[in-house]
Every structure is written in structure tokens, then in C-alpha cells.
């Protein structure tokens, strides 16, 4: 009663600001923890920026596989940039406060861009399936118009499925609760502060995770199973080895993207005995490690891009 009397009604329902604690119990180590995260963020910016520059400036690389890689680099840059700058500000500058609408904006972009990247990974798996299993029809199936529509669908799907998160948070009263034990704003982290039932948030979040992201995982797995079956039929052992090495690297990155994400997602709902430090560190890694690894696996592992990176640096030395 004292709280509701001391703050305006609107503030009691929705706080004007939230406080992001960072990693609870490890505040003394924040300065040092930030160093590897900052280093990985710089690697992600440099790696994805290089991939974008090479693909955009070289018309010979304006092909389906490289255009999808370009879209992946854009989503990677946005994905890690939605959280890392604020996290570094918390760790180094002790800037823990974030506005209510700023928090909802961050939440929206974190989940929307994650869903978009999941769709892009599915599109890239489909691209590899067509290239290996339907090589004669590759250019006719994946022409410029189709690629544009796929890219737009990836973005729109993320926006449409995540926008209800904002509506579900807006309907909740917070009764003055405004401290989030995390480094960034995510849907269930905000919802748990509410002083009302969050069952709709939980049900919709599970529905999106299982029906959207879960379906992406199933379709990606199906694509790579079909690809591996086609690879095993190749007459050349060298061709089989190259295809296996490429697919193996791609699968590793996909696992790094999805496993920590699903762990973080289900920990919020069912993992009451998981230490919060473990949950928060993994929640940050699934937004940062893929943007660091993707340029290496999808870019450096691709001969044409590797050669152009080499030429790029040779010309400047």
C-alpha cells in the first residue's frame, strides 16, 4: 500500500525504468568478464563486416548461396548488437538502468532477430539441398525474385510472431517491481516481475518456441539428412569428403546456435535448480557465439570468399 501511494498509478502498473543487475553473485568480476565478451563482439563485427563488404563489392558473388550468407551476416550483426553494448555498459560503466520502453524494444529485437536468423539458417539449408540434390534446377529454383521473397519472409515471420510478446508484457502490472537479474531484457525475464498471472506469456512463448523455432530445427535436420544421402551416392571420395566437411561445419554452428538457446528458454520455465549465473552466461553466449563463428564456418570455409579475403589483404600490404 505504501508503494502504490508513493508512486503514480501509471508507474505502479508499468515502471518508468528497469534495473539490469548483470550476473547476480558475480558483480565483483564484471570488469574481467566483460573482456572476453568485448573481444568476441569485436571479432563478430569485423568478421561479419568483412563478409558483407566482400559479397556486396564483388558482383561475381551475387549468387544465391552468398546472398543468403549476406543476410546471415546482417542478422548476426543486429543480434549481437542488441545486447552487447548495454551489457558492456553495465559491466564497465555500471549503467544498470534502462527505460521501460527501451527494455521492451530490446526484448522485441532480441527475439525477432533470433527468429529471423533461425529462418535464415533454414533457408541456407534449403539452398544447400537444392544445390546438391537438384543441381540442374538450382538457378531456376533460386532466382533473384525467389531469394528476395525468402529474405522478406524470414524478416516478416520474426516480426509477426514476436510482436505479441510486447502486447503480453504491456497487459501486466508490475506493482513497483523493476529489478531484472540479467544483462538484457528478454520476454520471460520481464514477465516474471509481474504481480499477475503470466500463464498467457508462458503458453505463447512455448507455442512460438516449439512451433516456429522447433519446426525450423526439424526442417533443417531433414534437409541435411537428404543432403548426406545424396553425398553418399557421389562416386568421388574427394567430393564426398569435401561435402562432409562443409556439412559437418554447418551442423556444428547450427548446434551452437540452437542448444544454448533452447537451454535458456526452457530454464526460464522449468529449470528452477539451474544456477542463475549459468543461465545468464549461456543466454549471452547464444547471442554472441554464432555471430563470431558464422563468418569463419560459412565464409572462410568457402573457397571463393577465402580467396577474396586473401586478395583483399594482399592488395593492402
Automatic annotation (TrEMBL):
| Principal place of residence | membrane
Q: Name one GO molecular function term.
A: olfactory receptor activity
Which Gene3D superfamilies does this chain map to? Answer: Rhodopsin 7-helix transmembrane proteins (1.20.1070.10)
**Which InterPro entries does the UniProt record give?**
GPCR_Rhodpsn (IPR000276), GPCR_Rhodpsn_7TM (IPR017452), Olfact_rcpt (IPR000725), OR51/52/56-like (IPR050402)
| Residues of the G-protein coupled receptors family 1 profile domain | 47-298
Q: What kind of membrane protein is this, topologically?
A: Multi-pass membrane protein
A single Gene Ontology CC annotation of this entry is: plasma membrane
Q: Which UniProt keywords apply?
A: Cell membrane, G-protein coupled receptor, Membrane, Olfaction, Receptor, Sensory transduction, Transducer, Transmembrane, Transmembrane helix
Q: Where does this polypeptide localize? A: Cell membrane; Membrane
> Which residue spans traverse the membrane?
31-54, 66-92, 104-126, 146-169, 208-231, 243-266, 278-300
Q: What does this protein do?
A: Odorant receptor.
Q: Which PANTHER family match?
A: OLFACTORY RECEPTOR, OLFACTORY RECEPTOR 56B1-RELATED
Query: What protein family does this chain belong to?
Result: Belongs to the G-protein coupled receptor 1 family.
What is the protein's name according to its record? Olfactory receptor
The organism is Mesocricetus auratus (Golden hamster)
Q: What gene does this protein come from?
A: LOC101823881
Amino acid at each position: 500500500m505504501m508503494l502504490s501511494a508513493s508512486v503514480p498509478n501509471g508507474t505502479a502498473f508499468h515502471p518508468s525504468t528497469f534495473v539490469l543487475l548483470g550476473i547476480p553473485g558475480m558483480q565483483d568480476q564484471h570488469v574481467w568478464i566483460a573482456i572476453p565478451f568485448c573481444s568476441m563482439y569485436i571479432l563478430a563485427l569485423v568478421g561479419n563486416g568483412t563478409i558483407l563488404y566482400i559479397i556486396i563489392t564483388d558482383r561475381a558473388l551475387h549468387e544465391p548461396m552468398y546472398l543468403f550468407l549476406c543476410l546471415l551476416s546482417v542478422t548476426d550483426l543486429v543480434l549481437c548488437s542488441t545486447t552487447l553494448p548495454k551489457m558492456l555498459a553495465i559491466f564497465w560503466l555500471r549503467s544498470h538502468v534502462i527505460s521501460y520502453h527501451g527494455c521492451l524494444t530490446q526484448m522485441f529485437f532480441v527475439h525477432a532477430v533470433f527468429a529471423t536468423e533461425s529462418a535464415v539458417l533454414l533457408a541456407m539449408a534449403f539452398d544447400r539441398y537444392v544445390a546438391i540434390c537438384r543441381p540442374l534446377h538450382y538457378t531456376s529454383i533460386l532466382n533473384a525474385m525467389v531469394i528476395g521473397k525468402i529474405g522478406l519472409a524470414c524478416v516478416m515471420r520474426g516480426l509477426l510472431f514476436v510482436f505479441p510478446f510486447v502486447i503480453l508484457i504491456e497487459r501486466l502490472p508490475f506493482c513497483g517491481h523493476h529489478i531484472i537479474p540479467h544483462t538484457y531484457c528478454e520476454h520471460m525475464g520481464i514477465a516474471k516481475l509481474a504481480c499477475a498471472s503470466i500463464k498467457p506469456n508462458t503458453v505463447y512463448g512455448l507455442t512460438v518456441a516449439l512451433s516456429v523455432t522447433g519446426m525450423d530445427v526439424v526442417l533443417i535436420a531433414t534437409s541435411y539428412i537428404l543432403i548426406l544421402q545424396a553425398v553418399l551416392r557421389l562416386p568421388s571420395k574427394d567430393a564426398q569428403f569435401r561435402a562432409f566437411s562443409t556439412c559437418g561445419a554447418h551442423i556444428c554452428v547450427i548446434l551452437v546456435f540452437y542448444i544454448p538457446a533452447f537451454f535458456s528458454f526452457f530454464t526460464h520455465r522449468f529449470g528452477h535448480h539451474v544456477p542463475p549465473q549459468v543461465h545468464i552466461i549461456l543466454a549471452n553466449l547464444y547471442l554472441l557465439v554464432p555471430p563470431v563463428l558464422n563468418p569463419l564456418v560459412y565464409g572462410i570455409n568457402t573457397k571463393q570468399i577465402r580467396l577474396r579475403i586473401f586478395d583483399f589483404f594482399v592488395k593492402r600490404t
